[in-house]
């Protein structure tokens, strides 16, 4: 059955003469009501529809009869939608009575679980009995785990690896250390389960957290070895009294390789336990969802809070508290299964980009959720439904995603396409509407080669279309500013939304985007021309917001702003340096009166006060930077020259002093020589006189 839904949304008018001169062809796209109001007939409107078409819709099964049951309907659906327009359909679900159950019992065999293992060996009969109350098609498997057999998790002494249990009890049976071991594949045989579990013994390790995440990952991804059936409720029951190691803990043992979420089982042992890190909680949750596995964490009281936090991160999981010896495990499993099976959660996978899905549960006990549809307390055989709303925000073709209930194999495949093109018939002949130079499609001309224009009226001749279009572009490269059509190398401007036209050589101007005052264009006192207000006669201002007036600019002496500014909007706009309101004072400007009459007696100043008040103080001219720099250089050179001359003078004076000293010394030396010569001559003369007198007396 195909259902088609029509909406009053944007449509296309394909009337040939629908648009007026200068009007954009985009005006053809509008609501039906608007197009009809503009004279477009119903038969001339194209409105692409949206549709919902179930491709596969097998009825829901009532009970399980060894065939593949159907619990979700429909199974395949195709949607044809308009971008941005939501489309809604319903999905039905009913849990089949007697649906098969596969339960994998995954047990912690570290030494602290010794008492629990003893009880598990006895519970085969009661466990099978409990499952048969749910379904006649039940199977049970068994697996065990401890931790990675490397330090610091396990003692790597050779003897300790072979017998890691407490040595105080010499007669106890103990198996060698191991990470994870698959013991029994899914079987409906109670006897086989009992015999396999009976052969299991306690092992041991060093630290308290165990390798439970390693074990659950392998149990989830090694489906062929575990024996999961295609059509069954898959449960993993994890029993432990300790916490768990997670991704990153492997670094303590030098294990750096991340978990690859693949099966690595040989001889029923996880062979990558000592080579690969523990999985993350996110990885484990993803694999549980992928393989429709629902975990039940049966833990001791001291670990309840830890596993409750883990359960919050793994959808469709439950936590139950074990008694000290696991004696309540059967009732715990029954209660957890009932909680899991009575809660139906619908979600989606592989959702394409730009697509959103919203769920509205239609049932007795709906639960709020952002990205899922949840119904609680749903009994077996009760039919419920979900209202699914899909919205595509962009154009796409045959994109698929799946909708599925968590923990259930059944899925709905949704194929989504958008209707983004108008289904217009194309007139293959040259049409008179296009000057017989093109064809008509949706009322718009598709021109032949060599012709351009709204009506193919322009023959480009020797020029190519690119050069013609280039003449319609400004520096930014936009053709006619996206406000017009380039026709024969010139812009034909479109109408604005208000009905006027863009104008200018490149349609760069419009008369609707000038400055506003009191929410009125140009204050209502002028007209807008290419973004600038042209004010009426008696108004001024950037938005024509002011009435022309000089009252606020008049001074006491009758001048306008003291002649030091202009009056705009009844306010003075002063020259640089002068202050409002009337440009009377100038900060930093010298007062000529005070400068010239600084030393004048006070009584004379009083006489000239009125005269001073009428003078116009002029602000000093800015300093001449060239003169300052030149004067500074000349001053430095002059000072240097004076210093050099002073030094020369001092040297000269010192030389004169030394020369005079030298002259004095020279004179002294000549006087001594004259005295010596004089005294020597007198001595000889006396001797001669004495000799002469001697001989005279003789």
Automatic annotation (TrEMBL):
Signal peptide: 1-21
Domain Integrin beta subunit VWA residues, every copy: 11-422
Domain of life of the native organism: Eukaryota
Gene3D superfamilies for the chain: Cytochrome c1, transmembrane anchor, C-terminal, Laminin, ntegrin, alpha v. Chain A, domain 3, von Willebrand factor, type A domain
Record's keyword terms, sorted: Cell adhesion, Cell membrane, Disulfide bond, EGF-like domain, Glycoprotein, Integrin, Magnesium, Membrane, Repeat, Signal, Transmembrane, Transmembrane helix
Membrane association type: Single-pass type I membrane protein
Cellular component annotations (GO), alphabetically ordered: cell surface; focal adhesion; integrin complex
Spans traversing the lipid bilayer: 627-651
Coiled coil: none
Pfam family, one: EGF_integrin
Family matches, as InterPro entries: EGF_integrin_2, Integrin_bsu, Integrin_bsu_cyt_dom, Integrin_bsu_VWA, Integrin_dom_sf, Integrin_I-EGF_CS, vWFA_dom_sf
Cellular compartment(s): Cell membrane
One record GO biological process: cell-matrix adhesion
Gene Ontology terms, MF aspect: amyloid-beta binding; integrin binding; protein kinase binding
Integrin beta subunit cytoplasmic domain ranges (all copies): 648-679
Family indicated by similarity: Belongs to the integrin beta chain family.
The protein's name: Integrin beta
Native organism: Lates calcarifer (Barramundi)
Name of the gene: itgb2
């Amino acid at each position: 059955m195909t259902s088609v839904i029509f909406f009053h949304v944007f449509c296309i008018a394909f009337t040939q003469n629908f648009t007026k001169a200068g009007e954009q062809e985009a005006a053809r796209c509008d609501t039906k009501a608007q197009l009809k109001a503009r004279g477009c007939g119903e038969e001339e409107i194209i409105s692409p529809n949206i549709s919902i078409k179930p491709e596969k819709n097998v009825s829901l099964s009532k009970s399980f009869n060894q065939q593949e049951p159907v619990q979700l309907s429909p199974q395949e659906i195709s949607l044809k939608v308009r971008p941005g327009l939501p489309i809604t359909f319903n999905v039905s679900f009913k849990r089949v009575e007697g649906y098969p159950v596969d339960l994998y019992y995954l047990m912690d065999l570290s030494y602290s679980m010794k008492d629990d293992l003893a009880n598990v060996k006895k519970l085969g009969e009661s466990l099978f009995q409990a499952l048969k109350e749910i379904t006649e098609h039940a199977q049970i498997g068994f697996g065990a785990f401890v931790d990675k057999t490397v330090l610091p998790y396990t003692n790597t002494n050779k003897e300790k690896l072979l017998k890691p249990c407490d040595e105080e009890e010499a007669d106890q049976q103990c198996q060698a250390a191991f990470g994870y071991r698959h013991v029994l594949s899914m079987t409906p045989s109670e006897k086989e389960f009992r015999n396999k579990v009976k052969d299991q013994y306690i092992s041991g390790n060093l630290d308290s957290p165990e390798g439970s995440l390693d074990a659950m990952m392998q149990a989830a991804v090694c489906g062929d070895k575990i024996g999961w059936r295609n059509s069954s409720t898959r449960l993993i029951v994890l029993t432990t009294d300790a916490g768990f190691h997670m991704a990153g803990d492997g670094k303590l043992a030098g294990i750096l390789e991340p978990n690859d979420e693949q099966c690595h089982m040989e001889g029923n042992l996880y062979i990558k336990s000592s080579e690969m890190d523990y999985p993350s909680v996110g990885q484990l949750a993803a694999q549980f969802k992928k393989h429709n596995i629902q975990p039940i964490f049966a833990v001791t009281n001291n670990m309840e809070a830890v596993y409750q936090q883990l359960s919050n991160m793994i959808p469709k999981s439950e936590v139950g508290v074990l008694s000290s010896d696991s004696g309540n495990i059967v009732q715990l499993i029954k209660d957890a299964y009932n909680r899991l099976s009575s809660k139906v959660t619908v979600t989606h996978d592989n959702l394409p980009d730009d697509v959103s899905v919203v769920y509205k549960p239609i049932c007795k006990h709906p639960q709020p959720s952002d990205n899922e549809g949840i119904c609680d307390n749903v009994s077996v055989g009760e039919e419920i439904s979900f209202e699914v709303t899909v919205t595509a925000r962009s154009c796409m073709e045959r994109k698929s995603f799946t909708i599925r209930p968590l923990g259930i194999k059944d899925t709905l495949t949704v194929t989504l396409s958008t209707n983004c093109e108008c289904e217009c018939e194309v007139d293959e002949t040259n049409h008179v509407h296009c000057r017989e130079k093109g064809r008509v499609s949706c009322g718009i001309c598709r021109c032949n080669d060599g012709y351009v224009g709204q009506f193919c009226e322009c023959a480009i001749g020797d020029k190519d279309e690119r050069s013609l279009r280039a003449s319609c572009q400004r520096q930014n490269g936009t053709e006619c500013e996206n406000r017009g059509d380039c026709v024969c190398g010139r812009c034909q401007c479109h109408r604005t939304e208000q009905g006027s036209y863009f104008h200018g050589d490149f349609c760069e101007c419009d008369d609707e985007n000038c400055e506003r005052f009191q929410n009125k264009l140009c204050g209502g006192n002028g007209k807008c021309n290419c973004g600038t207000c042209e004010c009426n006669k008696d108004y001024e201002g950037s938005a024509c917001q002011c009435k022309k007036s000089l009252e606020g600019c008049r001074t006491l002496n009758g001048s306008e702003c003291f002649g030091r500014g202009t009056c705009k909007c009844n306010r003075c706009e002063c020259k640089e340096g002068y202050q409002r309101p009337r440009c009377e004072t100038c900060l930093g400007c010298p007062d000529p009166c005070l400068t010239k009459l600084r030393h004048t007696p006070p009584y004379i100043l009083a006489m000239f006060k009125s005269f001073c008040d009428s003078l116009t103080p002029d602000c000093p001219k800015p300093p001449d930077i060239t003169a300052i720099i030149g004067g500074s250089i000349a001053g430095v050179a002059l000072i240097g020259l004076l210093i050099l001359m002073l030094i020369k003078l001092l040297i000269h004076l010192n030389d004169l002093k030394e020369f005079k000293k030298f002259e004095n010394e020279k004179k002294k030396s000549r006087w001594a020589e004259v005295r010596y010569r004089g005294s020597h001559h007198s001595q000889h003369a006396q001797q001669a006189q004495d000799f002469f007198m001697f001989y005279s007396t003789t």
